[in-house]
Amino acid sequence: MDEKKKLINWTAGISTVIVALLIIIVVMEPRGNGVSRAAASRAIALTLAGEDAVRAEGPETSFFPGELQDQWYVKYMDYLYAKGYLDPETCYPSEGSAVSAVTYGELSGWVTAAKGEGEPSLAGYVTEAAGKKAGKAVDKAEFWEFYDAFRAFADPDGNVKEIETDLYGTPGNVDGASPWTAYTKDGKFLFEGLSLDSYIDKTIKLLVREDGIIKVQGVVSDEIVYENAWISGFSGNTVTVFIGNIQREFPVRGVLKNEEEISGQIGDLYLKNAKPSRLLLN
Q1: What is the pTM of this model?
Q2: Which of 11, 133, 194, 258 could be disulfide-bonded to 104 (CB atoms 3.0-4.6 Å)?
């Protein structure tokens, strides 16, 4: 009986932990298909200023408590607090507010802060927020529609740019990589708050300001070529190459006969759907 009771108690304890974890997961994600206030704040802040300016023009003392000040979103939300785009009284600086979905009321406030009420493509958000939608979460598709209109108004000089590049590394597949750093054929970019691992070894279209990625616009091609990659080793069915200064390992099967043929040489590595299809020595 004692063993049976122990098993029941253990099972109940595990169930409690699982439920607790599920609650945490739900709380930490915006409900429905919204955009977190943290991610939305980053997009708006980088539209108004570059990474260096966001840091330099933020408040002298963070609005967030000390235990949160190492979180990636703090500098962007602090910048918006300092510039009057967020109100610490109605949007208390906390982890809960950062991970909650952005609302129509906040979009309206951003339009007002940018003095864009007279812009037809933005005025509708002020009108909607004045009605019953102020506290309603904005879904993801509509947020990015708003963002495009906001960017056109708030960034007339075109500091935010669209680029196409090959993504070949993130901290998920590069040992020793700096946090939130993406390695591309056009250099390193920060992608705080975004998920890029599914785009590795693809040509993608990005919305960027300086070295900060604001949004992945989409996949351009799943066929890429890493030209002039230095082949540092070959073992069995795996080849180790340097793409730029990043070391990667790829499975190759039946491409070359032995290690002596390729180690220490330069070659072009062709990939399709993130899998090597050809390795041609230069």
Answers
A1: 0.84
A2: 133
